[in-house]
């Protein structure tokens, strides 16, 4: 139990670093290599549509400026994000690494092919800290 809790805390810290959450700045600078942010959006998600229209381009640009790839997976329904056919071939192995069935917008932090963070919601971080190293 203690090991599982520690792993969860470390995953949260890694995602905080990549997304620029408070307390994550040092880790972001130290671990940007090998990181990728995977954004899961759904066509039937009004929050996703709003975020895509108003924030996505700026977020992707901040990621790119810090050398962190920003990948997008767009699924049909926020209620089922696990339809493998809707995922790019190279990202499908990530499905085996997290158990959430639904919920968008969702951000996965992937470190060298391994999911190390998983955040649901577009309001999880402040707008001025919405990208790796910011």
TrEMBL record:
InterPro entries: TAT_signal, Thioredoxin-like_sf. PROSITE patterns: TAT. Residues 1-28 form the signal peptide. Keywords: Signal. It comes from the Bacteria. This is Thioredoxin. It comes from Alsobacter ponti.
């Amino acid at each position: 139990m203690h090991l599982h809790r520690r792993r969860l805390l470390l995953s949260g810290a890694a995602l905080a670093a990549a997304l620029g959450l408070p307390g994550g700045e040092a880790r972001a600078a130290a671990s940007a290599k090998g990181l990728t942010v995977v954004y899961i959006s759904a066509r039937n998600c009004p929050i996703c549509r709003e975020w895509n229209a108003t924030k996505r381009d700026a977020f992707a640009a901040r990621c790119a400026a810090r050398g962190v790839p920003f990948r997008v997976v767009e699924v049909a329904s926020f209620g089922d994000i696990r339809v493998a056919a809707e995922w790019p071939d190279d990202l499908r192995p990530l499905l085996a690494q997290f158990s959430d069935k639904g919920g968008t917008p969702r951000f996965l932090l992937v470190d060298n092919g391994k999911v190390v963070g998983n955040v649901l919601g577009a309001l999880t971080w402040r707008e001025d800290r919405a990208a790796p190293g910011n």
